[in-house]
Amino acid sequence: MLYHVLWRQAESRPENIAVAGERRSVSYAQLLREVRSCAAFLQQLNFKPQDPIILGVPPSPEFHVVFYAGCA
To answer: CA 27, CA 19: separation in Å to the nearest integer?
Structure first.
């Protein structure tokens, strides 16, 4: 699962840059925190496994947050 790959990277390389965007860059540790928060929000919205999610976000750190949250 992709989420587990991110989790392992955050454990072994927490301060390394995971995603560099135009406005901000995020480390693996920060990306994992944001992904967990977004995944919890998706659960509050009653998203279930196998529910489709359409991402209308340009390539950015935010795209990666929502993408990995959906994988989680």
So the answer is: 7
